[in-house]
Amino acid sequence: MHIHRKGVPIIFSVLAVLVVIAAVSWWLVPLVILKLTVLTLLLAVLIWTVSFFRVPHRNPVIEADSVVSSADGTVVVIEEVYEPEYFKDRRLQVSIFMSPLNVHINWFPFDGSVSYMKYHPGKFLIANHPKSSTENERNTLVVKDLKGREVLIRQIAGMMARRIVWFCKTSDKAKLGQEFGLIRFGSRVDFFLPLDAKTQVKIGDKVKGQITVLAKLV
User: Fold this and answer.
1) Would you say the pTM of this structure is higher than 0.70?
2) Segment (H or E) for 36
3) pLDDT tens per residue, range 65-104
4) Which entry of 66, 95, 113, 187 is annotated as an active-site residue?
5) Torsion of CA 62, 63, 64, 68, to 10 degrees
6) Active site residue 133
7) Which one of 8, 125, 147, 154 has the minimum C-beta count within 10 Å?
8) Is residue 60 part of a domain?
9) What is the DSSP letter of 123?
10) 72 and 48 both lie in a single domain
11) Are residues 138 and 32 in the same domain?
């Protein structure tokens, strides 16, 4: 496990702020027990910030015709919906809520190529809000597998998340388990699959990026 390069500047910025707060608190807070309480809380904030940008070392699950989860989190939606941005038809939506304690790296779900990508500015509704998929700040990409089948993946910023980062562009090759993005501080990832896809998870399941198979494509 290591720390993501995009997190290093943020970690040092948070550390600098916490050091200042710690120094001021130690000077102004009268009781030793209160001083130690403040320092403990500040240390917890630093540990959480560092852990947020952790990148686990995993061996991606390789199974034929599989859509492997792009994110760690909890399955909160499995339903048939109309997808208006790219497919403009009905699709099977599977959504994963990423809490502030989850790993927030996003990985490609299978081998192929990026056939579409578009960033949308927007609101910061709580990530499990029904309208977050269409109204929040989000980034949409479509990955086409080697058989020409496409899956739309949408990174969605949540109430805490204020920054979506991506590392790919249209026409790039997609490799299972390769990073394509990062969402900072709590968020959600939606998958829009063909209607005949066979889901392998249910609502409430805990999933791991690169490991959990979300669905099988026909």
Assistant:
1) yes
2) helix 32-52
3) 999 999 999 999 999 999 999 999 999 999 999 888 888 8
4) 187
5) -80
6) no
7) 147
8) no
9) B
10) no
11) no
